[in-house]
Single-stranded DNA-binding protein (Soehngenia longivitae), 146 residues
Amino acid sequence: MNNVVLIGRLTKDPELRYIPNTGTAVSTFTLAVDKGLSREKKSEMELKNQPTADFINIVVWGKVAENCANFLTKGKLVGVSGRIQTRNYEAKDGTRRYITEVVANSVEFLEWGDNANKQSTPSNDDDDFFNGIDGFHPTDNDDIPF
């Protein structure tokens, strides 16, 4: 079983490129995922200038990649599900390089807009914004069973 679920913040804006000959979109970004340390351990690590988060490379393909590049920015909170992939290559200096990354099949935008403290669920004023994104459809609160 190879299944990964992460929640973290983008360390920089996603990079979007297109594969030559096929035109397939691919986006890459890095997530800072909190290590879930106790308050004391986190303070201790911060005093020693040690990271309190893991930095995970994410790769996204297709329309999801385009949506990530168009709507995500540095610092936004996202949820990612996918699989771990490892690969290697020979660098120009002749050394073997190894890469471990998450190939995402789903990316959930957990924050919208410029305000990081803004509610993660969009208001009805945002309906027109979401109509232009594949997979997003406005709902009526009367349709929610609770």
